[in-house]
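Sample pair:
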Amino acid sequence: FRSAPVMVLTALSVIGFHTLISHKEISFIYAALPCAIVSVGLGLSRCLASLQLWLKRPPSPRMALVIAICLTLATVVGQLVAERPFSPSGGQIAMKRLFALARTQPGMCGLGMVGAGHFPWFETGGYTYLRRAVPIYLTLSPQDFAESRDGFNFAIAERLMGSMMPGFSIVDCTLGYCLFKQEQGCQPTASHTISTVLRAINH
């Protein structure tokens, strides 16, 4: 900050502003990266210059031990903090497993993602994991489910939702979510396809 206050403030303002937006993409903060990289470089250069002057008077063995312990702890904590945002959540693990299971099911002509007011669709991976040319539906209420249930013969939902899905039986469950199946075929409908629902949500 001392070396390049404008660059630091620019990086912080760009990142801070986009932190307020719930949708996240790395491209949102591209403008902050050059400023951040230059600022970090200048700051590191000042730190190294100060360290070089300080090392002309070597620290005592006790002080060197304290510094080594602090640096080790900082490294360990920094590593843990850095990895946490990239660790998959329980929902992501469940969705990955269930979508991988769904794509192996013979006779699947449509897949429903069924929720009561919400469904973690953003953790599913969508067609990246499904890899089947079948429609995906997102239903967030009993009415949505009733209007589109003929469009899919497999569904992913929380286990407790099973009682609200007559005609569907459990294929397998993981971490509180299950893959359900009904025996009848599909009658594709435009109601509540995932693209339609997400467009409505975003507008």
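The chain has a mean pLDDT of 89.
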